[in-house]
Amino acid sequence: MDVVPFVFDVAAYSAIFVLVVLGLGIIASMMGIFNFAHGEFVLLGAYTVYLVEGTGMPSWFGMLLAPLCVAIVGLVLERLVIRRFYAAPVVAMLGTYAIALVLREGVRGLLGGQFYNVSAPLVGSFGLGHFSISKWRSAVIVITVVVMVGCYLLLVRTRFGLQMRASLENPALARASGISTSRVYAATFALGAGLAGLAGGLMVPIYSLNADLGVPFLIKSFLAVMLGGMGSFEGSVAGAALVGATSAALPWVIKPVVANLLVFLIAIVIVKFRPEGLLSRWRS
Amino acid sequence: MGTMPLMQENSGGRQRAPAYRRVLPWIEIALLVAAIPLPWLVEDFWILFATKVLILGLLAISFDMVWGFGGIMSFGQALFFGVAGYTAALIATKLDVTSVLVLLPTAAVTGLLSALVLAIIVILGRRPTTVVFVALGTLTGSYVVERLARGWSYVGGQNGISSLPRLTIGGVEIEEGILFYFMALGILATVYVLVRLLMRSQFGLVLAGIRQQESRIAFLGYRVQNYKGVVFSLGGLIAGTAGGMYAFHEGFMGPGQLGPVLSTQVVLYALFGGVGTLIGPIIGVGLIEIMSYALSQYWETGWPIVLGLLLLALVMFRPTGIMGLLVSDRERVGSFGRPKQAADPVAGTRHEAA
User: Fold this and answer.
1) Calpha distance B310→B178 (Å, rounded)
2) What SS3 state is found at A156?
3) Which of B121, B133, B140 should be substituted to probe chain A, the one whose Cβ sees the most A Cβ atoms within 10 Å?
4) Helices B44-63 and B77-95: crossing angle, nearest 10°?
5) Which residue of B has its CA nearest to A226?
6) Of B57, B34, B98, nearest to B246 (Cα)?
7) Of A85, A95, A268, the CB nearest to B137
8) pTM for the full model?
9) pLDDT digits (tens, 9 = 90+) for A56-94
10) Residues of A in contact with B158 (CB under 8 A)
11) Which chain B residues contact residue A223 at CB under 8 A?
């Protein structure tokens, strides 16, 4: 087994996966909602890039536009629907599942059940020894790291991040201190949706666009968030990195079907015995 | 965090408490009376359609028992349904067994065992698990098993197992049609009565208490996790029976019958009809299947969108489903003991909690 392509493959998949989980994790942690429509936000991001490219503009422009568009969709949905579900996590699951169904089938109708390819802004590859490394995948890894650091700084260093963390920690007290938690929640949801849109936009040149693009990520992302522990930014990232790396690495060793099964089983069992998440001990 | 069936409680419950008319038994009797002469009144296609509704109705009440009465959000009902159906189909094709007396009990036990395994992972144990964990755990299970079935050539991979033989009983083939219809109706009615009795028994009373306030029941000395495990496994048993019948009625079992799509479809059936009424989910299956059939004639790709909008409207505006229109909250959630009794423990707790 060659080490370089293996490491690169694992890193590239993990990077995309972390990006997907980041948005989901922020929404789940801050609002206690497992957003079943997250995969469809990813899909909408990818679809935006496809549409932009269809008008003749370069695809990198679509990738800039995708997070904005999806964030607006997220904002509208939050104001209309999601905010009714804050106190009831199970109802939220059903509601977001319904949204997911509508979005996915809507896009399927627009795409006509076809697969479409979107070209990457960076084509080709560069050599490393006698291996070739895809330029776009490398760029995705870099962008993921930048976005991750950006999110961390947003949460820890800005006024908005402080308000978000306050609303998570103690909503009543946050409201008493003059923070509009409802507005913070709306912004948080839009942020999470925007991150999903970005992930979708970046991944669409790698996976071709079809209506089920986001589906395989969804359940894995839930597990990653639970694995890392809800309520922490680092937890979601660590959980995502772990699940992403494992599920990319295992198929190199054992049959993909069995690998999939193993990843899920291990994750569920770990979450059962450490429901507060893997990082809880380290944090306390 | 109230479980959903109880979300809209206490709207003037106290005033209504002294006298209320029982509506549910009349609906139940009316549906049964309507179901008996049905096969002689409609064309063959609709007999098959009605049989499918009865079988899916069985699946729907298994979900209603687990969620509406047990308060466990299970996205895994299709898993038990499918695993049991696959097992029965494999036995029929590989071992040439066609007797219904072997295959359906096997399916039921398979459903029970698969639910038990899943319960051990997501419900049982020293620490109580959260409702979100159970929901995501069952969803994951359903997803994983579907993936497994799709990739495993022994069980037919993507294509599933097709051209199943007909079920037999004592040398007589149970043809899809009137005979199969009455078998499904008989099983559904029997299971329905048994579940109804169980949910109105002391066991059901404990479940109601768990739904209301889990910690209080635990303080009273009940092993909450075990009660949940039992109701979850019984749900698996019923779903398994439905899966066994479905496989032989359709003559086919595929990975689609295992996965999250059917699992969530079941949730929709129950929500639409009315969770916690048992009869509601069956009505839900009937109405949704008819709508689905009618709409897919004209606009095939539009049906899932309509389904999604319907589900969204339900959870936002009418969480009690259709039955919520006909049946009072008090009757829907259930009362225990004789209606005349002054002390109605569940109603008492409810108002107190509210």
Assistant:
1) 33
2) helix
3) B140
4) 130
5) B133
6) B57
7) A268
8) 0.85
9) 888 888 888 899 999 999 999 999 988 888 878 888 888
10) none
11) 136, 140
